[in-house]
Amino acid sequence: MAYEDLLKSVEESAREKELELRNKAAAAVDEIKARAKKQAGEIRQVHINEADKSITTERNKLFYLTKAENKELLIRVRETAFERAFSEAEIRLRGLRSDPKYPAVFENLLREAAGALGDESFVVHIDPRDGALCKKTLSLLHLSPEICTDLTTDGGVILSLPDNSVVISNTAESRMQRAKELRRKEIHAILTGA
Q: Range of 149's domain?
């Protein structure tokens, strides 16, 4: 019996040892699981933070790109409106010569250009359609320059010194171009509401 008791004692000791090892193993497994869960949470949080940063960066990038595109579109729309306004004015100017007020406009354009040249002798460049009007106007102004019918214009004159060292363009087209350049800021301010 002593042998049997000894065997029982060894078996019991082995069972206790096995139970102890199982408990230690279970505790180690639980600890490993807890560490793995904690690390997984930290890794997940890092990925979430990186995804948030990426989303924020992409959102900001899209926002600024959209803002820039909208600004560019607005500029194009304003420029189109500006160009359309001047195109319509140019279309109206094409009928200037048939306006009953054209002789007075022609006289003012000629007087203004001649005044800029002072007492210098000059050459008047006109559209052939303004030949008779030009002669009449020069007579009224007591001027007798050379007249060249070498222009194609919607109205107005170009005056030059005989050697072409000074040329003064006072045509409907040149006035429109100057007005366009001078009024660009003003018209854009009206279009922007500023």
A: 97-192
Domains of the chain: total: 2
Query: Domain check: are 49 and 132 in the same one?
Result: no
Q: What is the pLDDT of residue 27?
A: 81
What's the CA gap between 157 and 97, in Å, rounded?
Answer: 12
If phi > 0 it is left, if psi is from -120 to 50 it is alpha, else beta; for residue 118 that is left
Instruction: Pick the last residue of a domain from 37, 68, 94.
Output: 94
Residue 145 makes CB contacts below 8 A (sequence gap 6+) with 121, 122, 123, 124, 138, 159
The pLDDT value given to residue 162: 92
- Do 175 and 129 fall into the same domain? yes
Do residues 156 and 106 lie in contact, with contact meaning Cβ atoms separated by under 8 Å?
A: yes
Mean pLDDT, the chain, rounded, equals 85
pLDDT at site 149: 94
